[in-house]
Amino acid sequence: MKIVSVAIGGAFGAVARYLINISPLNGALGKFPLPTFVINVAGCFLIGLCLILLTDKWDVSENLRMAVVVGFLGAFTTFSTFEAEIYGLMREQQLVAALAYLALSVLLGFIGVVGGISVGRRL
User: Fold this and answer.
1) Under 8 Å CB-to-CB from 69, ≥6 apart: which residues?
2) Contacts of 90 (CB under 8 A, 6+ apart)
3) Would you state the pLDDT for residue 107?
């Protein structure tokens, strides 16, 4: 049932992401990727809100929590999970690990994109 919950939530998250990407936000600030920016920031806010509401404040089933946090937000943006993991490391007073994860993820993620483009162009 958990897999089904994640799949249903993921379907809604993917559609929500697509709708924001094709909304009037696209191109509103020229070349700045406003839809992705909005998705990432909104996803970060939503994962923080859901982690509190769906675990501490409201008594909801694990399947609903999985559908919303893993499914919907996972498909909507993985950036929210990334930010929540950094927060978790900082909460555990693992500042060096949190900063390393932040810096390395951004740097190596960018290198990965450039590397993938380079390999793809050679194929």
Assistant:
1) 47, 50, 51, 54
2) 98
3) 94
Q: Which residue has the tokens 């920031």?
A: 41
Q: What string of H, E and C letters represents the secondary structure of 22-89? A: CCCCCCCCCCCCHHHHHHHHHHHHHHHHHHHHHHHHCCCCHHHHHHHHHHHHHHHCCHHHHHHHHHHH
What is the C-alpha to C-alpha distance for residues 84 and 88, in angstroms, rounded to an integer? 6
Q: From first to last of its 123 residues, what are the pLDDT tens digits of the chain? A: 999 999 999 999 999 999 999 999 999 998 888 998 999 899 889 998 998 999 889 999 999 999 999 999 999 988 888 898 899 999 999 999 999 999 999 999 899 889 988 888 988
d(Cα 108, Cα 112) in Å, to the nearest integer?
6
